[in-house]
Automatic annotation (TrEMBL):
Origin organism lineage: Archaea, Methanobacteriati, Methanobacteriota, Stenosarchaea group, Halobacteria
Pfam family, one: Zn_ribbon_13
Domain of life the protein comes from: Archaea
InterPro entries: DUF2082_NA-bd_Znr
Protein name: Zinc ribbon domain-containing protein
Species the sequence originates in: Salinirubrum litoreum
Length: 71
């Protein structure tokens, strides 16, 4: 009855929870909306849905950073 499929080291670095939320922060202050600028000046924040621990990433896709966050 025991399922041991889960990798024990994946999950939030602090509490091992595996549910995350992703927010995006843009640091573009001006009125320009060039895609390259937005791409280069935006950060994504992955937060643990359980304890709120967050990490900030730059220039990566949401899927990548969730993988990195969960380890
Ligand atoms: Zn956590």
């Amino acid at each position: 009855m025991s399922s041991t499929d889960e990798r024990e080291q994946s999950g939030c670095p602090k509490c091992s929870h595996t549910e995350t939320t992703v927010d995006e922060i843009s640091t573009t202050g001006g009125g320009l909306s060039k895609m390259f600028d937005i791409q280069n000046r935006s950060f994504k924040v992955v937060s643990c849905a359980n304890c709120g621990y967050s990490e900030l990433y730059k220039g990566r896709s949401s899927g990548d950073i969730v993988d990195i966050f969960l380890g």
